[in-house]
Amino acid sequence: MSIDIKSSYDIFKIQQSCTIAAKILEKISKHIKPGISTEELNSICHKYITENQNAFPAALGYCGFPKSVCISINDVVCHGIPNQKTILNSGDILNIDVAIVKDGYYGDTSKMFCVDTENTKGLHLCKIAKKSLYLAIKSIRPGIKLREIGKIIQQYVESNNYSVVREYCGHGIGKNFHEPPQILHYDAYDQEIILKPGMIFTVEPMINAGSRYVYTMPDGWTVKTRDGSLSAQYEHTILVTQNGSKVMTLRSYENILI
Predict the structure, then answer these.
(1) Could you tell me which CATH class the domain 8-247 is placed in?
(2) Which Gene3D superfamilies does this entry report, sorted A to Z (predicted)?
């Protein structure tokens, strides 16, 4: 497997795209409220990406995906399609997944939001999903096996009686939206890949409150938990540095502490 080692110029350009993607999640947060449609949230993101940042939403048209961001609510695991009929309600949890391309370089990130009132079960699931990502990030450094990322996530999530979705994974990113290697979020064979400085990839665990099993809706995109349980996901784009790692999509208010 050929894994691209990024040049300093590549890293600079990918960082620009990642910074934009992170800003979009910051900007959209104030619009997360009961009564707003996912289509309106999509439109706000699209306008900010294209008009304010002179970039392009990577999801739009990707393999036929019809919208600029993915918005996945409650039991939707990933790839939720924004639309006028889907309205946010108090207590909903939702993931907004933003990927952008600027000057031929990609950045990709997502986070969870809780609508208006607190959903205790949903918030706990989100907390575990986010911490599983943070634990994985803390482990990333040159010389470790790729599979350590998934092993750490799986052990932490399952110790909290949640499950890890196995059908979807993180991925290399750079001049292409998806590149090798695949980043599995559970302990699995990794083709003996060892992390090296200059590798850039996403880590994006999808965590279910019930079983790990999922299914795809007739629209060909929307993935839901098979048992109807809640699902949560957090995603960052990560650079392997000489001594550890750098979160390229870190939001301005975010502090990764374990």
Answers:
(1) alpha beta
(2) Creatinase/methionine aminopeptidase superfamily (3.90.230.10)
